Amino acid sequence: MEHHVNEIQISYREKLSTLKSLSITNSKDVAELLFKNWDSDTIGLNECFKILLLNQSNKVKGIYPLSIGGITGTLVDMRILFAIVLKTLSVGIILAHNHPSGKLKASTQDIQLTQKIQQAALLFDVKVLDHIILAPDGRYYSFSDNGLL
Asked: Rg of the Cα trace of the chain?
Protein backbone atom coordinates (compact mmCIF):
# COMPACT_ATOMS: atom_id res chain seq x y z
CA MET A 1 0.00 0.00 0.00
CA GLU A 2 1.39 3.38 -0.98
CA HIS A 3 1.25 6.32 1.37
CA HIS A 4 0.73 9.64 -0.37
CA VAL A 5 0.48 12.98 1.36
CA ASN A 6 0.00 16.48 0.10
CA GLU A 7 3.09 18.60 -0.33
CA ILE A 8 2.76 21.93 1.43
CA GLN A 9 4.17 24.98 -0.31
CA ILE A 10 4.18 28.49 1.08
CA SER A 11 4.75 31.53 -1.10
CA TYR A 12 4.54 35.29 -0.71
CA ARG A 13 4.79 37.82 -3.54
CA GLU A 14 4.41 41.56 -3.39
CA LYS A 15 2.84 43.32 -6.35
CA LEU A 16 3.81 46.71 -4.93
CA SER A 17 7.03 47.23 -3.05
CA THR A 18 6.38 47.67 0.67
CA LEU A 19 9.43 49.91 0.84
CA LYS A 20 7.57 52.46 -1.31
CA SER A 21 4.35 52.31 0.71
CA LEU A 22 3.33 54.81 3.34
CA SER A 23 4.38 54.43 6.96
CA ILE A 24 1.52 54.47 9.45
CA THR A 25 2.02 56.95 12.28
CA ASN A 26 -1.46 57.77 13.62
CA SER A 27 -5.11 56.70 13.59
CA LYS A 28 -6.14 59.53 11.24
CA ASP A 29 -3.79 58.23 8.53
CA VAL A 30 -5.10 54.70 9.08
CA ALA A 31 -8.74 55.79 8.84
CA GLU A 32 -8.08 57.74 5.63
CA LEU A 33 -6.36 54.73 4.07
CA LEU A 34 -9.16 52.42 5.14
CA PHE A 35 -11.90 54.70 3.79
CA LYS A 36 -10.07 54.87 0.44
CA ASN A 37 -9.96 51.07 0.32
CA TRP A 38 -13.49 50.37 1.58
CA ASP A 39 -16.47 49.92 -0.73
CA SER A 40 -18.43 53.14 -0.18
CA ASP A 41 -21.55 51.45 -1.63
CA THR A 42 -21.67 48.84 1.14
CA ILE A 43 -20.08 50.54 4.18
CA GLY A 44 -23.59 51.42 5.41
CA LEU A 45 -25.09 48.06 4.41
CA ASN A 46 -23.20 45.31 6.19
CA GLU A 47 -20.30 44.81 8.58
CA CYS A 48 -16.89 43.85 7.20
CA PHE A 49 -13.73 43.02 9.12
CA LYS A 50 -10.33 43.75 7.59
CA ILE A 51 -6.73 43.61 8.73
CA LEU A 52 -4.04 46.08 7.77
CA LEU A 53 -0.71 44.25 7.52
CA LEU A 54 2.51 46.07 8.45
CA ASN A 55 6.25 45.47 8.33
CA GLN A 56 8.74 46.38 11.10
CA SER A 57 8.77 50.04 9.97
CA ASN A 58 4.95 50.24 10.08
CA LYS A 59 4.86 50.37 6.29
CA VAL A 60 1.67 48.95 4.81
CA LYS A 61 2.08 45.56 3.17
CA GLY A 62 -1.60 45.32 2.32
CA ILE A 63 -5.19 45.17 3.51
CA TYR A 64 -6.91 41.81 3.76
CA PRO A 65 -10.74 41.55 3.85
CA LEU A 66 -11.21 38.84 6.46
CA SER A 67 -14.99 38.62 6.63
CA ILE A 68 -18.24 40.08 5.37
CA GLY A 69 -21.23 39.78 7.65
CA GLY A 70 -24.71 41.09 8.13
CA ILE A 71 -26.20 44.35 9.30
CA THR A 72 -25.15 43.98 12.94
CA GLY A 73 -22.11 41.74 12.96
CA THR A 74 -19.49 39.63 11.25
CA LEU A 75 -17.47 36.59 12.30
CA VAL A 76 -13.70 36.56 12.65
CA ASP A 77 -11.92 33.24 12.31
CA MET A 78 -8.71 33.53 14.33
CA ARG A 79 -7.01 30.75 12.36
CA ILE A 80 -7.54 32.51 9.04
CA LEU A 81 -6.52 35.87 10.51
CA PHE A 82 -3.19 34.51 11.77
CA ALA A 83 -2.62 32.39 8.67
CA ILE A 84 -2.70 35.66 6.68
CA VAL A 85 -0.50 37.50 9.18
CA LEU A 86 2.11 34.73 9.22
CA LYS A 87 2.05 34.06 5.48
CA THR A 88 2.73 37.73 4.76
CA LEU A 89 5.50 37.86 7.39
CA SER A 90 3.80 40.83 9.01
CA VAL A 91 5.04 42.01 12.41
CA GLY A 92 2.27 44.51 13.08
CA ILE A 93 -1.44 44.59 12.36
CA ILE A 94 -4.28 47.04 12.64
CA LEU A 95 -7.77 45.63 12.94
CA ALA A 96 -10.68 47.39 11.27
CA HIS A 97 -14.39 46.96 10.86
CA ASN A 98 -17.35 49.16 10.08
CA HIS A 99 -20.58 49.87 11.92
CA PRO A 100 -23.31 50.37 9.30
CA SER A 101 -25.45 52.04 11.98
CA GLY A 102 -22.89 54.83 12.28
CA LYS A 103 -22.60 54.23 16.03
CA LEU A 104 -18.95 54.63 16.97
CA LYS A 105 -19.03 53.06 20.42
CA ALA A 106 -17.04 49.83 20.70
CA SER A 107 -19.35 47.01 21.74
CA THR A 108 -18.48 44.47 24.43
CA GLN A 109 -17.97 41.92 21.63
CA ASP A 110 -15.61 44.31 19.80
CA ILE A 111 -13.53 44.76 22.94
CA GLN A 112 -13.45 41.02 23.74
CA LEU A 113 -12.45 40.11 20.17
CA THR A 114 -9.67 42.71 20.19
CA GLN A 115 -8.32 41.35 23.47
CA LYS A 116 -8.47 37.77 22.15
CA ILE A 117 -6.56 38.73 18.98
CA GLN A 118 -4.04 40.72 21.02
CA GLN A 119 -3.37 37.74 23.32
CA ALA A 120 -2.92 35.37 20.37
CA ALA A 121 -0.63 37.86 18.61
CA LEU A 122 1.75 37.78 21.57
CA LEU A 123 2.53 34.13 20.78
CA PHE A 124 3.83 35.16 17.35
CA ASP A 125 5.55 38.41 18.39
CA VAL A 126 3.02 40.37 16.32
CA LYS A 127 1.89 43.77 17.58
CA VAL A 128 -1.77 44.76 17.42
CA LEU A 129 -1.34 48.51 17.03
CA ASP A 130 -4.97 49.60 16.81
CA HIS A 131 -8.54 48.62 16.06
CA ILE A 132 -10.45 51.15 13.98
CA ILE A 133 -14.24 51.29 13.68
CA LEU A 134 -15.49 53.15 10.62
CA ALA A 135 -18.85 54.89 10.22
CA PRO A 136 -20.47 55.40 6.80
CA ASP A 137 -20.33 59.20 7.23
CA GLY A 138 -16.52 59.31 7.39
CA ARG A 139 -16.06 59.33 11.15
CA TYR A 140 -13.96 56.72 12.95
CA TYR A 141 -13.16 55.39 16.42
CA SER A 142 -9.66 54.28 17.43
CA PHE A 143 -9.19 51.78 20.26
CA SER A 144 -5.64 53.03 20.73
CA ASP A 145 -6.62 56.71 20.92
CA ASN A 146 -9.28 55.84 23.49
CA GLY A 147 -7.05 53.76 25.77
CA LEU A 148 -8.47 50.35 24.86
CA LEU A 149 -5.16 49.08 23.43
From this structure: 16
pLDDT in tens, 15-44: 666 666 778 889 999 999 999 999 888 888
Triad 74, 63, 6: Cα angle to 5°: 85
Separation of alpha carbons 131 and 30, rounded Å: 10
Query: How far is the C-alpha of 110 from the C-alpha of 143, rounded, in Å?
Result: 10
Half-sphere exposure of 136 toward its Cβ, with a 13 Å CA cutoff?
A: 14
Residues across the chain: 149
DSSP H helices, the chain, are 27-36, 78-87, 108-123
pTM beyond 0.85: yes
